[in-house]
From TrEMBL, chain A:
Function: Important for the metabolism of amino acids and Krebs-cycle related organic acids. In plants, it is involved in nitrogen metabolism and in aspects of carbon and energy metabolism.
GO MF annotations, alphabetized: L-aspartate:2-oxoglutarate aminotransferase activity; pyridoxal phosphate binding
UniProt keyword terms in alphabetical order: Aminotransferase, Pyridoxal phosphate, Transferase
Cofactor(s) this protein cannot do without: pyridoxal 5'-phosphate
NCBIfam families reported in the protein's UniProt record: PRK09257.1
Residues of the Aminotransferase class I/classII large domain: 56-421
Subunit structure: Homodimer.
Name of the molecule in the record: Aspartate aminotransferase
Additional comment: In eukaryotes there are cytoplasmic, mitochondrial and chloroplastic isozymes.
Similarity field: Belongs to the class-I pyridoxal-phosphate-dependent aminotransferase family.
TrEMBL record, chain B:
Subunit structure: Homodimer.
Record keyword Transferase present: yes
Annotated protein name in UniProt: Aspartate aminotransferase
Family that this chain belongs to: Belongs to the class-I pyridoxal-phosphate-dependent aminotransferase family.
Lineage: Eukaryota, Viridiplantae, Streptophyta, Embryophyta, Tracheophyta
Annotated source species: Salix koriyanagi
UniProt-listed PROSITE patterns: AA_TRANSFER_CLASS_1
Top-rank EC class of the record's enzyme: transferase
Length: 428, 404
């Protein structure tokens, strides 16, 4: 947000400076007053990591899965799908709403294989540019059709959520979520915020594996949240970037969504295949909005397409083909589900190992939250200064909010990491 | 899995209350006034989006929708701008198939996120393709290039950057132009005006009108220029006319924003089609360029393109690039990898590149010969009127001059 503020100031500055001098002289640039933008806090970490020559360096910054050798993974199911696709099909434009086959399969994952909403065609859904693109499309849609609304975003959240709704020009507020003292959920404050928000407010919820804290409401807590949403008439928009990746079981990870659906909410969902299918760079996802009936779903979908057209016309075909090839073939789908569970299990195993290592080192602090939290990230509770020490002294790279990407941990570096964390925290 | 947080009331009391509520179900809820449906309620019967009306079909893509629905055996689709073979089939270039198989067989390749600005190799090669390998602006690091989602995405990112950082928020677009142009610029926050372009009387360029309109544009305004093969008219300025346009624009400080969707596809020669853009770069001034590989590499659905901004200095270019990232990140974080990998594989390999230029020329030649054949067929039937514009116009489209 500092960047945006600076950009605003910059534009005004330029207007004043160049007010009357609008002829571009041969020597000065129109962009002379453009300020350098701050580095993206998350992606900037990887840049710094890559530039570091130290052999001991560890990257627990960005949320991309790594195997136990610290290598990125292309799933077997994905390789096989690509083998079938490569060089065969044409590369014609997809419709603005993307690959219908991919979208159908994707809705089944979120809403349930036998979902009545799918059968009744009540869901307006379009292929999106991964989770970011889905959130942005929804934010633009919200701005256009509920221009007086604002969005409640959990504190903390993935930093880009703020950017997305800001650029869509939807005012935002935060609601209590993380409880620093217990490194868990601040449930009573969260419920208070839900109650105190004006009726009919829009809320962003992380369906599972909250990013960056790894702290999720329990099933009972989700039921209470859902009930309170009914009381207040709030709108729930779920960002689900980790289905299958959190517990290893996609249906279990979608529990929060299923509870809201059972309770009759008309929700919105952003889904991403970046992590659970390892398709990061392919930018494949889906935005869906549950509507009153089929007619309204058609209507809403047409408007979502109107927003996509002036942004990128139609979404990229390759990743969508990979997804629909896998999910459309029972054998490949089975293989995929197995591979997702392997990834989730490895993460869970690393949580256990990190905690055990820290406890063995005799750390004076409690590290129970490492195994209580879920998904790719652990909110360690370390301060920015402690994180800076980790980077400077131990070449360990993470975001300064103390978020550890568990995927960056493996059996070779977990001991080193535990030692380093212990060193910088033992006197706190 | 997750511990219940301790709260003042006992957690078991709370659990019982929650259970009771659920067991009591709808009957209990309906007795409670506070849960009656709000206008903005997100539950039960009323959607928060009930008031949304259906959006119109896209005028261009809607044609294909209608074509697909039509059962007639003699139907023709002359709507969407996607290349077709002699047999009326879509075409995947051989060189693209080759590149894809290379990629899929390379087990060292991964699918990680690209940087926000996209595949670096692709960006460099794209800039060289348009500006020329020996372009001083590139050698002086004055050009920033970022991978975007084809032409549309490049235009949108460039327009959002302009709306944030440029002192003028007016963009002039030619009349007519691609239907999506005004929407892109409007949603990006620019205000759209037009300049005269097509002359229905001659079915050619209204050069005088163009000059008049650009001369009276507010200084510093942005001007959208089709680099070649104007869409939808197929009418391009001559090189002399381009030179006059360039002089005029530079004298008024008008900011050129080139849309290049057909490089190589228009004349069959990549360098020839790049001339207008290169003219503007050669004078040392600044400009924006949106490139698309949808048509000339047949990569339509892969959404691969690039936005380049040519700046006065390397320092400015670096700062501009950092601000472009702030536009992209909240839109889609980083661009899709597949199309970029294909383009880079082709552009950097001499054999593949040469193969590509040959296939590209073949596509352009087929279009040119179809123009010729259509023209001759109309003449042979004695169709009244002058149809020479069909062969004078260039690129994928012809403005027939027929009325609805």
């Amino acid at each position: 947000m500092a960047g945006f503020g600076k950009a605003m100031a910059c534009r005004e500055h330029v207007r004043i400076r160049l007010g009357t001098r609008f002829m571009s002289s041969s020597s000065s640039s129109w962009w002379q007053s453009v300020e350098p933008a701050p580095k993206d806090p998350i992606l900037g970490v990887t840049e710094a990591f890559l530039a570091d020559p130290s052999p001991d360096k560890v990257n627990v910054g960005v949320g991309a899965y790594r195997d136990d050798n610290g290598k990125p993974v292309v799933l077997q199911s994905v390789r096989e799908a690509e083998r079938r696709i490569a060089g065969n099909l044409n590369m014609e434009y997809l419709p603005m709403g993307g690959s219908m086959k991919m979208v159908e399969e994707t809705l089944k994952l979120a809403y349930g294989e036998q979902s009545e909403f799918i059968k009744d065609k009540r869901i307006a859904a379009v292929q999106s540019l991964s989770g970011t693109g889905a959130c942005r499309l929804f934010a633009d849609f919200q701005k256009r059709f509920r221009p007086d609304s604002q969005i409640y975003i959990p504190d903390p959240t993935w930093a880009n959520h703020h950017n997305i709704w800001r650029d869509a020009q939807v005012p935002q507020r935060t609601y209590h979520y993380y409880h620093p003292e217990s490194k868990g959920l601040d449930f009573s404050a969260l419920m208070d915020d839900i109650k105190n928000a004006p009726n009919g407010s829009f809320f962003l919820l992380h369906a599972c594996a909250h990013n960056p804290t790894g702290v999720d409401p329990s099933e009972e807590q989700w039921r209470e949240i859902s009930h309170q949403f009914k009381v207040k008439g709030h709108f729930a928009f779920f960002d689900m970037a980790y289905q299958g990746f959190a517990s290893g079981d996609p249906d279990r990870d979608a529990k929060s969504i299923r509870i809201f659906l059972q309770d009759g909410h008309h929700i919105g969902i952003s889904q991403s295949y970046a992590k659970n299918m390892g398709l990061y760079g392919q930018r494949v996802g889906c935005l869906s909005v549950l509507c009153e009936d089929e007619k309204q779903a058609v209507t809403v979908k047409s408007q979502l397409q109107q927003l996509a057209r002036p942004m990128y016309s139609n979404p990229p075909v390759h990743g969508a083909l990979v997804v629909s090839t896998i999910l459309g073939d029972p054998e490949l789908k089975k293989l995929w589900l197995k591979e997702v569970k392997v990834m989730a299990d490895r993460i869970i195993g690393m949580r256990t190992m990190l905690r055990e290592n820290l406890e063995k080192l005799g750390s004076p602090l409690s590290w129970k939250h490492i195994t209580d939290q879920i998904g790719m990230f652990c909110y360690s509770g370390m301060t920015p200064e402690q994180v800076d020490r980790l980077t400077k002294e131990f070449h360990i790279y993470m975001t300064r909010n103390g978020r550890i990407s568990m995927a960056g941990i493996n059996t070779s570096n977990v001991g080193y990491l535990a030692n380093a964390i212990n060193e910088v925290t033992k006197s706190s | 899995m997750n511990p219940e947080m301790a709260s003042p009331s006992s957690s078991s009391d709370r659990r019982i209350t929650v259970l009771a509520r659920h067991l009591a179900g709808v009957e209990m809820d309906s007795k409670n006034d506070s849960i009656s449906a709000f206008p903005t309620s997100g539950s039960d019967n009323n959607s928060v989006f009930s008031h949304v009306v259906r959006g119109p079909e896209d005028p261009i893509l809607g044609v294909t929708v209608a074509y697909n629905k039509d059962p007639s055996p003699v139907k023709l689709n002359l709507g969407v701008g996607a290349y077709r073979t002699e047999e009326g089939k879509p075409l995947v270039l051989n060189v693209v198939r080759k590149a894809e198989l290379l990629l899929v067989n390379d087990r060292s390749r991964v699918k990680e996120y690209l940087p926000i600005t996209g595949l670096a190799e692709f960006n460099k090669l794209s800039a060289k393709l348009m500006f020329g390998a020996n372009c001083p602006a590139i050698q002086e690091n004055r050009v920033t290039t970022v991978q975007c989602l084809s032409g549309t995405g490049s235009l949108r990112v460039g327009a959002e950057f302009l709306a944030k950082h440029y002192l003028q928020r007016t963009i002039y677009i030619p009349q007519p132009t691609w239907g999506n142009h005004p929407k892109i610029f409007t949603l990006a926050g620019l205000s759209v005006k037009t300049y005269r372009y097509y002359d229905p009387a001659t079915r050619g360029l209204n050069f005088q009108g163009l000059v008049e309109d650009l001369s009276s544009a507010s200084s510093g305004a942005i001007v959208l220029l089709h680099a070649c093969a104007h869409n939808p008219t197929g009418v391009d300025p001559t090189f002399q006319q381009w030179e006059q346009i360039r002089k005029l624009m530079r004298s008024k400080g008008l900011m050129p924003f080139f849309d290049s969707a057909y490089q190589g596809f228009a004349s069959g020669n990549l360098d020839a089609d790049a001339q207008p853009v290169r003219m503007f770069v050669a004078d040392g001034g600044e400009l924006l360029l949106a490139q698309s590989y949808a048509k000339n590499m047949g990569l339509y659905g892969e959404r691969i393109g690039a936005l380049s901004i040519v700046c006065k200095t390397a320092d400015v270019a670096a700062r501009v690039e950092s601000q472009l990232k702030l536009v992209i990140r909240p839109m889609y974080s980083n661009p899709p990898i597949h199309g970029a990998s294909i383009v880079a594989a082709i552009l950097k390999n001499r054999d593949l590149y040469n193969e590509w230029t040959i296939e590209l020329k073949a596509m352009a030649d087929r279009i040119i010969s179809m123009r010729q054949k259509l023209f001759e067929a109309l003449r042979a039937r004695g169709t009244p009127g002058d149809w020479s514009h069909i062969v004078k116009q260039i690129g994928m489209f012809t403005f027939t001059g027929t009325k609805l």
